[in-house]
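Hypothesis: this fold can be encoded by more than one sequence.
Test: take the structure tokens below, design a sequence, compare later.
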């Protein structure tokens, strides 16, 4: 397994690759959710690249960039065991060479972003600039590595859809593949940020998947189609946990993430909830009963 740290070396390595190239972009601190993406990509690809880069532009000024967990040595051991061909672990200066505008550049024309409702709601509202940071870094990775396929988890449902739209708008020839959320045995969605939780907070965090699954049962088992009623029920359950603070609970169209009032099509129930100082996001698919 090769470990590459510069864009120039990665581009040269890519030029020598034959066959189908897959990419799994990560910020490191790998867990089973990441490894499930790696395994699928390994099965699909002749050459597999995994990027490990904690992207500063997707963190707000009061967010956890400095504290975000980093353990590259452990990540490399895990990736080598999964048969990864190349790990691209650049510095920020490699991804964002200094430039005249914000001091950070994509190597193209500053920011790469998706405009419109898809990126303005949910995370776009509660974490201004976050999705712009994601699309900027992913566009840069796509242009350096030139994969035919890239793999993302459905836990970050809005991110997945925004990246897919970005690739289309930028005319990047990458198939963006979303794979199911991987959960702990008790239902908590796997996340690098779970490491921040104290034992008491870890138990409290279970209220998030419980609320989403309750919403799914109301829609799929009881036939409830009133989105506001389902959201209220989920929020009431979450509020019973004293350590939890809700950023949002939303029922949205499965593809466009348009807010729904009636659940008359495939949808997602999405939540962002703070447990103590840790912000967790999760979502569950909803398939309404036929009329």
């Amino acid at each position: 397994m090769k470990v590459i740290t510069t864009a120039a070396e990665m581009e040269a390595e890519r030029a020598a690759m034959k066959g189908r190239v897959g990419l799994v972009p990560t910020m490191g601190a790998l867990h089973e959710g990441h490894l499930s993406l790696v395994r699928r990509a390994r099965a699909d690809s002749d050459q597999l690249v995994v990027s490990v880069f904690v992207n500063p532009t997707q963190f707000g000024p009061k967010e956890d960039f400095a504290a975000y967990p980093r353990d590259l040595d452990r990540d490399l051991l895990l990736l080598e065991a999964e048969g990864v061909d190349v790990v691209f672990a650049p510095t920020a200066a490699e991804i964002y060479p200094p430039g005249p505008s914000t001091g950070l550049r994509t190597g193209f024309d500053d920011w790469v972003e998706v405009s419109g409702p898809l990126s303005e709601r949910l995370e776009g509202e509660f974490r201004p600039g976050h999705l712009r940071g994601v699309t900027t870094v992913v566009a840069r990775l796509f242009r350096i590595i030139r994969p035919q396929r890239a793999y993302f988890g459905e836990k970050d449902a809005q991110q997945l859809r925004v990246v897919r739209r970005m690739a289309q708008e930028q005319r990047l020839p990458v198939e963006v593949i979303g794979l199911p959320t991987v959960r702990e045995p008790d239902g908590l969605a796997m996340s690098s940020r779970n490491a921040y939780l104290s034992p008491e907070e870890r138990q409290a965090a279970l209220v998030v998947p419980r609320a989403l699954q309750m919403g799914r049962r109301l829609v799929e088992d009881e036939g409830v189609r009133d989105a506001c009623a389902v959201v209220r029920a989920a929020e009431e359950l979450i509020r019973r946990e004293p350590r939890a603070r809700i950023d949002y609970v939303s029922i949205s169209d499965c593809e466009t993430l348009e807010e729904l009032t009636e659940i008359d099509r495939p949808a997602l129930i999405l939540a962002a909830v703070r447990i103590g100082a840790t912000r967790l996001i999760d979502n569950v698919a909803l398939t309404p009963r036929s009329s």
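The chain has eleven helices and nine strands. Residues 211 and 234 are 5 Å apart (CA to CA).
Hypothesis status: open.
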